[in-house]
Design brief:
- By secondary structure, this protein is an alpha+beta fold.
- The longest helix is centred in the C-terminal third of the chain and has 20 residues.
- It has 33 helices and 24 strands.
- The chain is globular and about 115 Å long.
- 43% of the residues lie in helices and 14% in strands.
- Strand 12 and strand 13 form a beta hairpin.
Length: 835
């Protein structure tokens, strides 16, 4: 028998090899595995020092191991040492939550190579579990060993468990580059499981088929797979020169193909814009609908991002959020264009009240001075969501008060461009605002020309991002115009006509993707900005209607009113019913969020808008909390909702609920589906809602409600803690019929519910608890409770109080349970009567 000491970097274990057996010895334990029974899976579990004592980590390790382990699988415990473990031994480590030493993922490869457990180095399935991250040196070493030893992985699954700032894909990425894989992240802060990336064999195959992609149609069909495959292939690497050459060749082929179709595309765009200018709404809607069936033609930025990956752009990016914000890291810089470099010729011939504060004359060439912020405005964004929210469409800034405040604080007073130029010629350039004496970074000239627009864009980029183009420049200018239009910057009121003229110039002459987004699954045809705004607002009205996921109005809810303002100033007609569709879309989106947060509470509150209800409170220690949730809840009663309850409920809802009729609110709530995303919700945009009478639950307790006072006179027997079974020689059924009438419904369990509550909860119920119990009971035979149930419940509780007097809970329970049998109950009543 040959014995080898395997000790790379003092990672100690012993390898014994004898004929066709592999024996691994550690801590005086001997494990034997026949090479004829090679493992189908390798489960490599990180047991480095950072895992020690981590309950969250070891809890999930245990679940993952149990879910994936099959007899004969190879379990490896690794850190900067590596050990072959049996299932039982690994479970002991999990129970002890013990970890030590550093994180060296390359030791897994060294072990598999030295032991030759897989002689051809083809690993059927590697499952790697880790809580940490490693430097690019470890990533490079793993890549080197995989190449040097010709490792191949048929499948890879990665589990990253911990906090995002301490755990990322740096450990897993070398193993997943060339095989189908899925990587999950268990977030210690949110306690949620997230699929970070999933790459199929089809995705990987697309890399070898790049040379067959010749036009936009083929590229768009392959893009999602290409993006996933290249991200996985290039994560943490210095790039790939050969792959870059193939992507560039693909880009050139697409350019050549695109040039042949430009004339046809331009004609389509002209036809849509022409129809809008001619107020031909029907034709515009017809043309717009065709864009959803056509392949997206905007591809430049997507290809440039792929090229940047091939250049090593993902070298130090291992986190999912960082990958998503990759576009920000490669943002373009605008052409430098200062205000003093542009033509000062007046470009606005309309009436204006603008008087330059320097010349004290009416001028037609105003420039808005822009103050230098302490730091770029967009650097104030602290989350990935907010960053993508704002950069995706700058109009969303109106949803972030702190950011809009910072933006407005940079907007100074206007002066004339002529004054600035003359001051420069005199050797006294204006570097501070003449009115506020604050340092300026530049100015926004308001002429309707590309020269003025370029200077305005350059200045805006300085205050927003320190010079980078983050978000559409025309939309950033729209933010300025809307603020002035709404009267938020009073001292710019006199120059609003100039701002509006440049806004119109931008809207009519600048092109943008039809969907106003970077999403490749939505129409990306380039349209004039005004046309694109109209396109997004009108998409629900196209015929045929686009798929629900492509209803663009849903993607622009946060700033839809701003888009309406932009369309209005160019005079394009919007479809009749847009405001209704917009309000309903907002409402459904809001209701989806509310329903996901607390489904039962949401449904009960909606119920109270049309059905008479009683509001009860469920305490934290209540036995009903599993069914009703904790806090206030509504129980349905016979009859219509009263106005006071409706107004009270609406006052607790967001304002959008009060912008629509009660009928619409209730009706639309029935379409909210928590299993679908906001963009997938299917609901009527324009149809009239049905009457609330079709939704209200039936009146099944009318006879009892008309005679509810009679419940005050039904006594509880003090010997049984139940109503008398026999009274005046008549059993309870006969007595009930004579009291309420032969057609009166029987509320089964009205008094029994009280007694059973005491039995199960070891205490007497409050009124709210009694009502909750009655509703649970009534649910078996009715959809509602009597409208007078509160009064009825009070009468019954009073009857119990009079019967039990000073009885303890245990004494009450004893009598109540002993009288459960009807024969014994009658006997107990007889004894009571004799006494």
């Amino acid at each position: 028998m040959n014995v080898y000491l395997f000790n790379p970097r003092q990672k100690n274990f012993y390898l014994h090899k004898k004929q066709n057996q592999i024996l691994s010895c550690e801590s005086h334990h001997l494990f034997i595995m026949s090479s004829k029974e090679l493992a189908k899976k390798v489960i490599a579990i990180d047991t480095s020092g950072s895992t020690s004592g981590g309950s969250f980590y070891w809890h999930h390790v245990k679940n993952i191991l149990n879910a994936n382990y099959s007899e004969g699988d190879l379990i490896l415990s690794w850190s900067n040492k590596i050990y072959n473990k049996t299932y039982e031994e690994m479970m002991n480590i999990i129970l002890s939550k013990c970890g030590q030493s550093a994180t060296y993922p390359e030791i897994i490869l060294e072990y598999l190579h030295q032991t030759k457990i897989f002689p051809d180095f083809k690993i059927p399935h590697l499952i790697l579990i880790t809580d940490g991250l490693v430097s690019v040196d470890h990533v490079d070493l793993c890549d080197q060993l995989i190449k040097q030893y010709s490792f191949t992985f048929e499948n890879f699954t990665g589990y990253i468990i911990g906090e995002k700032k301490y755990a990322n894909m740096s450990v897993t990425c070398p193993f997943s580059r060339n095989c189908p894989h899925t990587i999950y992240f268990f977030d210690q802060n949110t306690k949620e499981k997230e699929e970070i990336i999933s790459v199929s064999s089809q995705d990987l195959k697309i890399i070898s088929e790049i040379k067959n992609i010749n036009n936009i149609t083929q590229f768009n069909m392959a893009y999602e797979s290409l993006d996933r495959a290249l991200t996985s292939r290039l994560l943490g690497t210095k790039g790939d020169v050969e792959l870059r050459k193939e992507v560039l060749k693909m880009k050139n082929r697409i350019l050549e193909s695109k040039s042949q179709n430009n004339a046809e595309d331009a004609e389509d765009v002209d036809n849509l814009t022409k129809a809008l200018k001619e107020d031909n709404l029907d034709l515009a809607l017809k043309i717009g609908s065709t864009y959803f069936s056509q392949v997206n033609i905007s591809y430049e930025q997507k290809i440039n991002a792929l090229i940047r990956m091939c250049d090593g752009g993902l070298r130090l990016i291992f986190d999912k959020d960082e990958i998503k914000c990759f576009k920000m890291q490669i943002a373009e810089t605008p052409e430098e264009r200062h205000v003093l470099d542009i033509d000062s010729a007046p470009l606005y011939d309309g009436k204006s009240n603008f008087v330059c504060p320097i010349t004290y004359e009416n001028e037609s060439d105003p420039v808005i001075l822009i103050l230098a912020p302490k730091k770029p405005i967009l650097s104030l964004l602290t989350t990935k969501f907010d960053t993508e929210f704002i950069v995706g469409c700058p109009l969303n800034i109106f949803r972030l008060n702190n950011l809009i405040g910072s933006f407005m604080s940079c907007i100074d007073h206007p002066i004339s461009l002529k004054s600035m130029i003359e001051a420069e010629k005199c050797g006294c350039p204006i570097t501070k605002s003449p009115l506020t004496r604050k340092q300026i970074v530049g100015g926004i000239p308001l002429g309707s020309s590309e020269e003025h627009v370029s200077a305005a864009n350059w200045t805006l980029c300085q205050i927003l991002s320190g010079g980078k183009i983050l978000g559409d420049n025309d939309m950033w200018f729209a933010v300025l115009w809307i603020l002035v239009k709404l009267g938020k910057i009073k001292y710019l009121t006199d120059v609003e006509p100039f701002i509006r003229e440049q806004m119109i110039f931008r809207l009519q002459n600048h092109f943008i993707k039809a969907s106003l987004t970077e999403l490749s699954t939505l129409p990306c045809r380039k349209l004039p900005l005004a046309t694109a705004c109209w396109f997004c607002l009108s998409s629900p009205f196209f015929s045929p209607a686009p798929p629900k996921k492509q209803n663009l109005l849903r993607y622009h809810l946060a700033h839809a009113q701003a888009l309406v303002m932009l369309v209005d100033i160019v005079g394009y007609k919007l479809p009749i019913g847009l405001q209704t569709a917009l309000s309903r879309t907002r409402l459904v989106s809001t209701m989806l969020r509310m329903k996901k947060e607390n489904p039962k509470k949401f449904e009960n509150e909606i119920l109270s808008l049309y059905q008479k209800t009683v509001n009860v409170n469920v305490q934290e220690d209540s036995s009903f909390k599993e069914h009703f949730g904790i806090g206030s809840t509504f129980l349905p009663l016979d009859g219509h909702a009263d106005l006071e309850t409706v107004n009270q409920t609406l006052s607790t809802f967001p304002k959008i609920f009060r912008d629509l009729s009660i009928e619409e609110v209730v009706w639309l709530s029935k379409f909210v589906d928590c299993s679908k995303s906001s963009s997938e919700q299917d609901f009527p945009l324009l149809e009239d809602p049905p009457s609330l009478d079709t939704l209200r639950k039936g009146d099944s307790w009318t006879i009892l409600d008309q005679q509810y006072q009679k419940f005050e006179h039904i006594k509880i027997c003090p010997k049984t803690m139940r109503p008398y079974f026999t009274l005046n020689g008549k059993d309870w059924r006969q007595h009930y019929t004579e009291t309420f009438g032969k057609d009166a419904p029987v509320f089964e369990g009205l008094d029994r519910t009280y007694g059973m509550y005491v039995f199960y909860n070891k205490k007497f119920p409050t009124l709210d608890e009694y009502l909750l119990g009655l509703y649970r009971k009534a649910m078996h035979f009715s959809k509602t409770l009597p409208s007078k149930i509160v009064d009825i419940a009070k009468y019954r509780m009073k009857a119990f109080e009079e019967a039990k007097k000073d009885l303890t809970v245990s004494e009450f329970t004893k009598l109540f349970m002993e009288s459960a049998d009807s024969f014994k109950r009658r006997k107990m009543e007889t004894n009571s009567n004799e006494e």
